[in-house]
Design goal:
By secondary structure, the chain is of the alpha/beta class. 41% of the residues lie in helices and 14% in strands. It has a single domain, classed as 3-Layer(aba) Sandwich (Rossmann fold). Strand 5 and strand 6 form a beta hairpin.
């Protein structure tokens, strides 16, 4: 059966670029916890306050140097970031290294997915402390499952749909959004009219590295994917590339 698309607009930005934040100290804490098979990350910060690692700061500045090399006709007109520190710091450092004359805006709808009571737990911790929830998540699946007091991917997609309605006011502009893994994947789900299996296949098979860029361009009245998870900004710099799983993926790893 042919698939239509519900998400329509009378005007779109000419370009939409989604940048995942740089490596955070949460990524490093997760790696250490996995190696130790610990139940919880050794990280005494709320999720909104987790900063970039040294490598993450270098990655963010590499994005800024990439922007500085773009012709004026390809540079961002608008830069918007999640207010979470690791994304905001990525945007601020990229903006500073670029030196572009644009305001940096913040929008809470670009924040990371809320994992509720699972926040800070590893997959081992979820299985140990919330065995029934781990089984329920296995049954329901990653896309529809809602952690206690948290959000499903569907909830994040609802935020994305709200953002897209506001983007109609930026017709013909080039927008760069600095955000998180689950949000970028939700943009793909909504803009490309993906099914649940299609989205989860992409999530499983195609890594989304830190400070990678996912680009959409306006064509025939729609935003169409030009490239996904492009790491050329980081690759061009003497900066380590990292593709650790997001916080969302860590806590969801209960199999």
């Amino acid at each position: 059966m042919p698939r239509g698309i519900l998400t329509r607009a009378t005007a779109w930005p000419s370009e939409l670029v989604l940048v995942r934040h740089g490596q955070s100290i949460g990524n490093l804490a997760d790696q250490k916890a996995r190696e130790a098979k610990a139940l919880r990350l050794d990280l005494e910060l709320r999720d909104a306050d987790v900063p970039l690692s040294d490598a993450g700061r270098e990655q963010a500045e590499a994005v800024g140097r990439y922007l500085a090399k773009l012709p004026d006709a390809e540079a961002p007109d608008v830069v918007v970031s999640s207010p979470y520190r690791r994304a905001a710091e990525t945007a601020e450092r990229a903006n500073g290294a670029w030196g572009g004359d644009v305001d940096l805006l913040f929008d809470e709808r670009l924040r990371e997915r809320d994992l509720g009571v699972f926040d800070g737990l590893t997959g081992y911790g979820i299985r140990e402390e919330y065995a029934q929830e781990a089984a329920r998540r296995d049954l329901i699946g990653k896309f529809y499952y809602v952690p206690p007091s948290g959000e499903s991917w569907c909830d994040v997609s609802l935020r994305v749909r709200s953002i897209l309605r506001d983007l109609e006011g930026w017709e013909g502009q080039r927008l760069w959004l600095f955000t998180h893994q689950a949000v970028i994947m939700s943009f793909r789900y909504v803009l490309e009219n993906l099914t649940e299996p299609e989205l989860l296949d992409i999530d499983r098979e195609e890594p989304l590295p830190n400070c990678s860029m996912t680009r959409y361009v306006e064509k025939d009245g729609r935003l169409r994917l030009d490239h996904f998870a492009d790491t050329s900004a980081v690759d061009a710099a003497a900066t380590p590339a990292t593709d650790e799983p997001s916080k969302t993926e860590r806590a969801g790893d209960v199999h």
